[in-house]
Amino acid sequence: MKLLAHSVFLLLLMLCTNASDEQVYIVTLHGSPAIHKFSGNGGSPRARARLFTTRSATVAYTAELVARHDNLLSGIFTSSSYKKLYSYSHVLNGFAVQLTSKQADALRSLPGVRRLEKDCRVVKLTTHTPEFLGLSTGAWPREGGPTNAGEGVVIGIIDTGIDPTHPSFSVKGSVAYPPLEDFHGKCEENGGSPGFSCNGKIIAAQHFAAAAQAAGAFNSSNDFASPLDGDGHGSHTASIAAGNHGVFVSNDGFYFGEASGMAPRARISVYKALYRQFGGFMSDVVAAIDQAAKDGVDVLSLSVGPSSPPSSSRVTYLNAFDVALLSAVKAGVFVVQAAGNGGPYPRTMASFSPWIMSVAAGLDDRNYSNSIYLGNGAKLTGAGLAPATPGDQMYNLVLAEDALANTSGFSFSPSNCQQPGVLNKTLIQGKILLCTYSFSFIYGASTVKRVSDTAKNLGAVGFVLLAKTDLPGNKFNPVPLGMPGIVITNVQDSLFLLDYYNASNGGSDAWAKIGNGMNPTFQGTAPQVALYSSRGPGVKDYTLQDSDILKPNILGPGSLIWGAWSPIGTDEPDFQGEHFAMMSGTSMATPHIAGVAALIRQAHPDWSPAAIASAMMTTALVTDNKGQPLLAQHYSSSGGVDLIQATPFDFGSGAINATAALDPGLVFDAKYEDYISFLCSVTQTDHTQVMNVTGSSCGVKGTSTSALNTPSITLSSLVASRSVTRSVTNVAGVAETYILSYVEPPGISMQVSPQSFPIEAGKSVAFSVGFKVAAPITGEYSFGSLVLRGDKGHLVRIPLAIRAAAR
Question: Where in the sequence is the signal peptide annotated (predicted)?
Fold first, then answer.
């Protein structure tokens, strides 16, 4: 059990390495990658279809690019003085190579070289959610039920690999998975130790570790030179997106319901680029993106991104990672990325670019709580996914410090109850053991599971873990336990219990019983934005200047999510040896959105990535299950957690509404050329910079970044007044007339034109929105919304985030 604010293992942080003169560089060259050369005008699956209809030419062209890369390097360096790790030929034209800084300078000066970036190291940052999202009664029936939901769609997962033997990915008893004509991924059969095999559900799997090996960080005996998941995180995210329907979830001998992925019939293509001991390297991740685009995945789910805007690029959108994903989008791949776990602080986004769906994490309405009943009649609540103490009687309490045996030679504080040998079994047997939660559980190796094991080994009937002092982000994940136990997370309640113990004749007259915490409750306000979820506004460069792009984009379930786990995984000590784990983070929210995207792609195979994103965003919910505005967790002045009204910088367009997203009425579409125009409009960017990283010419510079046709309007600096134009396309299949209405952001006056319009099926209509500063400038953002109501029942909503500025 760890504090969620510390759960950075659920995201991937980027840290540039400069430890020695020899470094891996990502090099971009003149000339188009295959996607740019063969996919034509990007932004739809037709682009990918064209890529595969020219497959023989594509293969020949990529082979030519690889040869060029090799010739370039061998023409300037001796073969023993460098090591090429990858050739990138689909999303980038370039390679990753290990060089000295002097060699890098020489390579940078060559005419055909556009850009060199230093490689960056990355380290690691459901049983109920299908019902919570309404899939079982809404989206799934539209797709033919859970046995067909996601059929024919491939979700690529870039993570720590997968456990192919897990029941969430089994094909036993299921209808056979036919081959997919437009998918060309491969499986590393027995590619490492232990071996690995695909089965049709897992349609392809590869691992990428060249940069890790070059750095000397890869250990084949621990990290597995295969797609096998030695961590657990990759299996968890894959099962959320596309795990089988109706999988029994058990942990520590207890049953917790049945799990299902969001798109249970979708295929999974695995790209392992992260490892349990050290994380990974960005050049390996870019290689995975390149392979996924080459294979032909429909959806790409990533829990990887920087902890801050990349300093190697003046603009956040122009690093190799984001540019590679832009090329994937050009080929029709829908890309979804975790927003980050830097919340609740502003400008902590780890996902920047408008062509990427950035996902914030929310809490749903399922909670696991427990209670302890004291002999003085008091009842205290806490976290404890554990059974009750036997019978209805009370048991004597004993504090760990009052039951010491031998403290020499032990590495943990006795009060943390991590080692049974430090405590006296005779004094503990048949009692409830009181232990202390400390920083060792956050930054050290202490775990709640080990407390449970200690209590069990000493013959205790249960245990209580007390938080006696405020700790950062006092918010706990309940851990499934095989014996009665509870964590008292409230400091005042913990001190109350200690006072009761100390006043009871040295503890001999202190009695208690622990309730049953195995059954979840479905109460309270939901969804809410989780405390740890990163917040906007989005930034456009490493100086944290605000962008005119709304980030995050959408809110998905991310807290207390059950999913598959690798029993050999070491990512979380509390789940070692288990096949299922309950995790929290934006990494858990991301595959929820990836799975919903697969359902939309199945229903609308001709929609572009931008159209899929628009469908989710314009139909998202901005009210909770009680009909009230969404709330977000924030720190209170006392260090606790308060709930305040959320804004688009907390949740983007709102909480995902999977069923409505299948029939949005209108979509805001955008093509690859629109994203290039956006890049050319960023004030810190010159035309040469865009050409160097994308290979595309700016032509006439765009007028404003806010002109990009997104399903939101963000103005980080409104001086006096401005008009913004948006275009919508009717995807409902029938003609409809829409009326426009709006809620003005405080201090801003608005006008829309036209105020209503008819729109034929398949046609597009443009409208303009005028904004004018109407109150004294405060320097703060204000928020509003624009709603388009159709006479056939469609409702299209886009959020507004406006900040007035002086001239």
Answer: 1-19
